[in-house]
## 1
Amino acid sequence: MTAAAHPHEAIFRDLLVQHRDRLYRFVLRHIGHAADAEDLAQQAFVEAARQYENFRGESQLSTWLYGIAMNLVRNHLSRSPSRQYRFEDESALDDVAVVAADPEEQCEMGELVTMLQAELQDLMPEMREVLLLVAMEDMSYEDAAALLNVPIGTVRSRVSRARSHLRRRMEAAGAVLPF
């Protein structure tokens, strides 16, 4: 078939190129399993292509795509409550770049990351979710609001409160923050 037979082909090609890696990381962060994340990210693109005629244009196309991915993640997690973890041997690190750092700095950063992970887990789920979307996924406040179906002011408030809470807790624990 020709490109004229598929008028939306260029739109999806651009969407795929722009969001493939970011969408994969988004899904991976939620489910923690690389192969499943790859499958779900690909399925999100397939669903978007299949359902494009239902896209009403009330949000950006990318926001709509992330909404589809989030629904797939939720379905996946609800079907697999006892997720299994696979452990890799050290050969999995063969292709990982090594950054030479002072052992003391490595230790301090490791402690800081561990502390931050614990504090993130203690955040209210709504605050944690929006903070991860905005800070880790580099999603705009507008896109996060559309994805979560909440007002933009709610997103701004949750991000601000989450950052403030984390900063306060980390400093109270004696952490020296690099930011």
## 2
Amino acid sequence: MDPNQLADGLIQYLMLIALLTFHEFGHAWTAWKCGDDTAKSLGRVSLNPIVHIDPIGTIVLPLLMIFLPASYNQFLVGWAKPVPVNPDNLRNKKFDDILVTMAGPGMNLILAIGLIALSKVALIFHSVQAAQLFFDAARLSLRLCFFNLIPIPPLDGSQVMRVVTGMTWEAYMRFSQFGIIGVIVVLQIPQVKQAVTSATDGTLELLCRIFGVV
């Protein structure tokens, strides 16, 4: 593998770890504020990446993508260990359940906005490399945002589907047993990648226009 490609991949991986940490922190913090302290009691309301690491979604799959040919590693994604939530503790059970679920993708969107703003500041100070770094991190954050909306466990979209359809926890847990296999299969479907990429690029372009980032 080209050393430059490897270095770029590892930088992307470090970005991924940071973004996934904030993503799960968003879930845990929102659940805590909505009345459920399950995640807090387990130390998940934290920006320590170690408490959020999932062996497959945070380590194995992303690193495989980095070491695969360039045509594959352009779509670096992953997930962290799902935050435990007890819906019975939430003050407004159905609304708060969706709010907690969407807090992760919402955190990624907020981070992308902040990163594009930092990219603009870097350009003002003629630091093109820093601007590019912030831009790449914003793009990855948006990709994680839209990737997590796919309705397959352990992704957040499956939790929204559970609440909207009224699926029982028992049925959802049975469905979840095959979730990781489903995610891996879905990642092989070009239309899914294209949909996530289109949503990512469209939102990124909008943010760049708002902040005047070229």
## 3
Amino acid sequence: MTDRATVPRGRHAPPLEVRLSVQRRRLLEAAAAEFARHGYAEASAEAISRAAGMSKATFYEHFANKEECILALFDVAATEVLQAMAEGTAAGGKDPLQRMRGGLRAFLDILAAHPSESQTLLVEIIGAGPRAAQRRDEVFDRFAEAIDTENAAAARRGSVARLASPDDAYAIVGAVAELASRQIRLGVPADVRDLEPVIERLIVGLVAPPAPV
């Protein structure tokens, strides 16, 4: 989820490792756009290379095939989303509600800012084969683990109830992913950030302390 980059040519050209890094970013950006526009099944290495302004040979210098490309794109997108959420959560200080809101807002903001990458992260990866499905499960586990760890820390301070099980954390991840996927596919609601109050009610309903008897 990076800005498009170009590489100077001629005697001012950067070192090889820098050029390769920029090429890879451009290819991933082009792949995200192609997957979003045509779907993973219809996208091709040739189309991705052309959209990136590179040869197909350059594509194969970076990725063995289209599957390797979408896995790399998925990993980059997932890592950047997790980082943004961690920063948003930390910005909430010690208040558990503000920390939850900060992480949630960061998640929705980055989806809104990078719709093509978001479609890969939440939609196209599902149809990209068993390796992609496994990678998606692993990333969802990381999201769930982060939620469970955050909840455990807040519960120890007595500010929220402890989730009943790790599956509750995974249920939050699954529900949020489906809501965001539906928005990306169908445009419902009109803006993915409009899901914030819905998701907040879901999470608060699971972790709110029980009412005094």
